Amino acid sequence: MQEELLAKKELLRLTGISYGQLYRWKRQNLIPESWFIKQSSFTGQETFFPKEKILQRISTIMDLKDQHSLEELADLFSPESTTKHFASSDLTAMPELDQGIISRFQHVIKKESFIFKEVLFIYVLSKIIRQAGVSESDLEDMVLSIQNWLPKLKTISYRFIVCQRLSQTFSLLLQQDAPLYLDHKVTELHVYDLDELAKDLKLKLNKVLEGEGSHNHEFFVEKDSGLEKTAKL
Amino acid sequence: MNRLPDLSISGMGKTGGGKFANVEISGMGTILGDVDAERISISGKGTIEGNASVARKVEVSGMGTIRGSVTGGQVISSGTASIEGTVEAELVESSGNLKIGRDAKIHELSNAGRCRIEASLKAEKVSSYGLLSVGADAEAEEFYSQGSFSIGGLLNANKIDIEIHGYCQAKEIGGEEIWVRNGHSFSFLAKLISPFLSNGKEFDKLTADLIEGTIVSLEFTSAKVVRGNKITIGPDCVVQEVEYTDELEIDSRAVVHKQTKI
């Protein structure tokens, strides 16, 4: 289904915002770059927006901008934000994520919603299962290791490496640029660059979250309450 | 507490990278790896083959090349500096020739020489009195130019204040307040800059496809479309189409082909 587009001047007329505001919000990453769609028209090029998404986003910004700084809002709209939670129902809707792994995480981490880092590892393990197939017990070990690692990770600039020595497999988490020298009997089975995977995942999560209007709204309301907590601290 | 060692190359030399307090290259020197230092100073011909991370500043007064990226406090160039990777810094000051090969994220950029950024620029404040060129988009809260500039993408700033000297060009300009004035160039600057102009570029003019702002005031500007709430089209402007919501003022020496109140 093709989304309905809205021309920039129509947007300004409908919402009453100024050019200055629109450019400011673009600079502050409150409106994603990908929503600015250039199309040629009789006056040269004109900018259009996905209608439903942009109207929803502008009304959210207008509602929240008096209580929160633009930085806080930008944080809110970006998927890596630590204040943002993804409901497991949103995740099960994504074909890239393995159902089994999601429920394993739910079980181990004992949460119904996940932050970006956690979703990233669900994504990595889903990839491993699909590309290679891993035994139940190995998978269990990986999930437990990840559970231990997660609180210690401040960034995601890591490589996730699965190795094999004789018939045993084990996983490592290594800083992005750190060299790795292994025992000669060890072979690297898989190497995953978390930074790269995070970029893929971000795009996919954005699609899911922007997918349905009603869902979207729920998501913002939930975020709103989360933000108030941080703002009061 | 261990104090980090200094590194100094004053003849001709090559050395590996590492962590230092002060790094000084005053002859012809090459550092083969990444450098992490309090301060790096290149006054001869110096090359760093890796990334440079500085707590205080990198100073180039000779000819400096950094093949990787630079992160840290200040980058001050009064010679010829070329950084092939990205730059993330508090302050970048160029009074010589500075080239940045990839994206730059700088709190304050101050240019009084030639500064070329091949990819995008994100800054709080940009002030340029020389020639500034950005390959992709340039974003800032405040953008002041009293020289020439060329921006391949969108110039997006809260306040844009341009005094035209020589050739000024951006694909698109957007912001809250946009002020453009003619600066009446001296002829020597014209001679200095005109070799860099390709055919059809006009001297002492600002050219842009699109200019949009809440308040837009222009002089000596050619644009296809100008949109805004309150617009003033001053002398020597040629604009194909103006769209405004509140006010429009057009100087008698300006040409506006079509105007629409929305």
Care to give the gist of this entry?
The complex is a heterodimer of chains A (233) and B (262). Chain A has 233 residues and is of the alpha+beta class.
Supply database-style keywords.
heterodimer; A: 233 residues; alpha+beta; three-stranded antiparallel β-sheet; 10 helices; elongated; disordered C terminus; B: 262 residues; mainly beta; 23-stranded parallel β-sheet; 1 helix; 23 strands
Overview of this protein structure:
The complex is a heterodimer of chains A (233) and B (262). Chain A has helices spanning 8-15, 19-27, 51-64, 70-77, 88-92, 99-109, 116-131, 136-149, 194-211, 213-232, and strands spanning 5-7, 37-41, 44-50, 86-87, 113-114, 158-165, 168-175, 186-193. In chain A, helix 3 packs parallel to helix 10. Chain A is elongated. The termini of chain A are far apart. Chain A has ten helices and eight strands. Mean pLDDT of chain A is 79; it is low at 212-233. Helices cover 53% and strands 18% of the residues of chain A. Chain B is mainly β. Chain B has a 23-stranded parallel sheet that branches. The longest helix of chain B has 7 residues, at 187-193. The model of chain B has no long low-confidence stretch (mean pLDDT 91). The A-B interface holds A 9, 13, 18-24, 26-27, 43-45 and B 139, 156-158, 174-177, 209-210, 212-215, 224-225, 227-229, 240-241, 243, 262.
Query: Largest chain-chain contact?
Result: A-B, 14 and 23 residues
Please state the oligomeric state of the protein chains shown: heterodimer
The description of the largest β-sheet of chain A is: 3 strands, antiparallel
Mean pLDDT of chain B: 91
Low-confidence stretches of chain B: none
Structural class of chain A: alpha+beta
Enumerate the strands of the largest sheet of chain A in spatial order, edge to edge or round the barrel.
1-3-2
Beta percentage of chain A is 15-25%
- Computed structural class of chain B: mainly beta
Roughly what percent helix of chain A? 40-55%
Give average pLDDT of chain A, whole number: 79
Radius of gyration of chain B: 21 Å
Q: What gyration radius of chain A follows from the Cα positions, in whole Å?
A: 21 Å
Taking the alpha carbons of the first and last residues of chain A, their distance comes to: 43 Å
Order of helices and strands of chain B: EEEEEEEEEEEEEEEEEEEHEEEE
